[in-house]
Amino acid sequence: MAKFITFEGIDGTGKSSICEAVHKELLDKGYKVKHTMEPSDGWLGGLVRESYKRAISPFSEALLFCADRAEHTREVCAWLAKGYHVLCDRYVDSTVAYQGAILRPYFKAKKGQDLLTWLKDLNRPYIQCPDLTILLLCPPEICLERIGERGAKSKFERLDLLKAIEANYLELSKGSARFVTLDARGSLEEVCAKAIKIVKAFIGKELKPKAVVPTSEEDEPQDDEEDPCDKPCEE
Ligand code: TYD
Predict the structure, then answer these.
(1) How far apart are the C-alpha atoms of 13 and 135, rounded to whole Å?
(2) Among 23, 149, 158, 169, which is disulfide-ready with 35 (CB 3.0 to 4.6 Å)?
(3) Structural domains counted in the chain
(4) Which atom of ligand 1 is nearest to the CA of 15?
């Protein structure tokens, strides 16, 4: 069975580079594998990126991330159904962790309603539950230093916010079997090597490398395809 593997962590953990390195390694070894990300590279992902530049309600922003995911998930499930392992740089846990921190001051809850639970419930009807989630952990202070070296900071990249987001990630990973946490304080090479080891151990026995199948239009989801998603999240 093809596996759906997500990479999560606060900004500055090196997540995107690590996800790319794992993808390259699996491709080099002849696995059928796709690399994707959220916000997606589809038109709804474009809208999400457009929204960063606008004054937007944090609820509209949250719902845009979810709309992008609902569409992107169809693509992910179509790839899985065709036997590709899918590596996804951010997925549902990003919404629960980030919007769970950003919406906190605005959330008008019903009595006893919890923000993180509401965000999970909002996503549950259309997501595919990841088989494995690699959560990269690095102190927010170090992440901010790394981001500073990269150039201008986004609105999400503030110490107080990153700390709250990290706390949400830790809450999510607690007691969930699909999460593996990875210390991302080391050099990029070290962390990439560890991530590659974890992913290979996870999928290694399941799917031996196959002859590389070139990507064709047939791999893209067709509008009239039935929903191939088959793994809801119980959490
Ligand atoms: P982007 O610059 O497109 O990607 P990255 O910085 O990860 O390379 O912006 C992603 C930002 O959006 C990042 O700060 C996390 C945030 N985000 C959310 O707040 N909620 C979500 O559901 C997702 C997918 C991302």
Answers:
(1) 10
(2) 23
(3) 1
(4) 7
Residues of the domain holding 173 = 4-107+114-206
Q: Report if pTM > 0.70.
A: yes
152 lines ligand 1 (CB under 6 A): no
pLDDT band at 157 (very low <50, low <70, confident <90, very high): confident
Q: What is the pLDDT of residues 93-109, one digit of tens each?
A: 999 999 999 999 999 99
Q: How far is the CA of 145 from the centre of ligand 1 (A)?
A: 18
How far away, in angstroms, is 40 Cα from ligand 1 center? 10
Task: Tell the residue nearest (CA) to atom 9 of ligand 1.
Answer: 39
CATH number at residue 185: 3.40.50.300
Give the mutation target among 98, 102, 157 for probing the ligand 1 site: most ligand atoms within 8 A of CB: 98
pLDDT digits (tens, 9 = 90+) for 216-226: 555 555 555 56
Structural domain includes residue 233: no
Q: What is the DSSP string of 48-60?
A: HHHHHTS---HHH
Does residue 64 lie within any of the structural domains?
yes
| CB distance 38 to ligand 1 below 6 Å | yes
Q: How many helices (H) and strands (E) does the chain have?
A: 9, 5
- Would you say residue 232 lies in a domain? no
